[in-house]
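FORM 7B: Structural annotation worksheet

SECTION A. Query
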Amino acid sequence: MTVTMPAPSEFPHVAAAVREATDRLLVSVSRLDDAAIGEPSLLPGWTRGHVLAHVARNADALVNLLTWARTDVRTPMYASAEARDADIARDADRPLAAHLEDLRESAARFDAAAGALPEVRRAFEVEMRNGVVERADRLPLRRLAEVELHHVDLGVGHTVEQLPPAFLDWELTFLTTVKFAGHPDLPALELRADDGRRWRIARPATGPGAGAGAGARAEATPVVVSGSAAALVGWLTGRGDGSGLDSHGSALPVVPPL
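SECTION B. Predicted structure
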């Protein structure tokens, strides 16, 4: 059984999932103190404050894209890569109360922008960082991944295994059909969840005859990797080392950074 990403009609449902994930994040963060904010996160070189500042600024960056989709006025995610990094560095060392307020307010801005996007504009394409083109109706899913995965990155006891099943399904579909589809540094992969669901990552067409139509080259035999959906997401997103996964006699491939 294969799994697909949310259809455009499910835009409100995914936006609601973002609100629920944000509420869970806020509960975890509210249990910290100022000292804990300055402690290392699970992301190399970032404290928990860096992670939280990034989550807040990402909300505003996606508001920019939702505004672009609604108005047809080009509005970049960030003024520049340097400005993005500077904003995170500026906000990282704030006290807990300031982080909580910023997380709540930026999340509310994102939720309002998503709610203001007319249905007829959801297919509009915008440009994310690094030139990646995305449909507006997938921006809530992008936001959901930011909130869920960075919640794990805080290192406060929230693990990949605790991520909601619906998010795990959507994220595996996104990673296999969008993020890593045809990635030159990955072999052909077939991911199998314990309950029978499957996802595939194809190799890019290369060499003589590539692009010449069906049958121009033999389809590569995929490396099969099986395990729980949580373990698969952890491995593909760098939040797990692949322990608990079975690569059926092949070496577990090294996954490129997100």
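SECTION C. Observations
DSSP finds eight helices and five strands in the chain. The helical segments are 11-30, 34-37, 48-71, 81-91, 96-116, 139-153, 165-179, 229-236.

SECTION D. Sign-off
Analyst initials: ____
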